[in-house]
Write a structure and sequence with these properties.
Blueprint (H helix, E strand, L loop, with lengths): L2 H24 L3 E2 L5 E2 L20 E4 L13 E5 L6 E3 L17 E6 L6 E7 L8 E3 L8 E7 L4 E9 L2 E9 L2
Antiparallel strand pairs: 1-2, 2-3, 3-4, 4-5, 5-6, 6-9, 7-10, 8-9, 10-11
């Protein structure tokens, strides 16, 4: 067998293998009308401290394209309302080593909400008394994407509620000390 034939066989084998991998990666995807692509949610990891806290399970999805974000959308964990008009990034749930912690400088959260709508975020601790959640929501994001900073003043079980236009989303998280 000459070098050309051997190279051609290797090349064709790589093309076939790549096709099989790509077909396997896309076979379970489904799309919904607003452009967000959904896949099954990976099983969550629960901390033993959350046993009495009804932590909301995020959904594994790919948000719709947004001109405010340079790169193409990628799959991630999000909290979502029923019609997917509000999404809140749950980035820390993707790896066991990350947890939400009480931090003086707050925690960055990315959101998708109705384009240009004012996002109002509130939060309260539901397992004990605590000062309310502090939300820093900068003005004037014209697209669906909105960056925010949330400061949880204490550890514990927190319910976060977001409203924008006629849409609302509530979810519960556990915050470590």
């Amino acid at each position: 067998m000459n070098v050309y034939n051997r190279s051609l066989i290797i090349f064709m084998s790589l093309v076939a293998l790549t096709s099989i991998i790509l077909i396997g990666c896309t076979a379970s995807d489904t799309s919904n009308p607003d452009g967000a692509t959904l896949t099954p949610t990976p099983s969550p990891t629960e901390s033993s401290s959350t046993s009495s806290c009804p932590v909301t399970e995020p959904v594994w999805l790919k948000p719709a394209q947004d001109s405010a974000i340079q790169d193409s959308p990628v799959y991630g964990n999000y909290f979502s309302n029923k019609d997917r008009s509000i999404l809140a990034s749950a980035w820390w749930t993707e790896q066991e080593k990350y947890q939400l912690h009480v931090r003086e400088d707050g925690i960055k959260f990315g959101w998708f909400r109705p384009a240009g709508a004012t996002l109002k975020i509130t939060g309260q601790r539901i397992d004990a008394k605590a000062p309310p959640l502090e939300a820093h929501v900068p003005c004037c994001y014209p697209t669906r994407f909105q960056a925010t900073g949330l400061t949880f003043p204490t550890e514990g079980c927190w319910e976060v509620t977001a409203k924008a236009a006629d849409s609302a989303l509530s979810f519960v998280v556990w915050v470590e000390p």
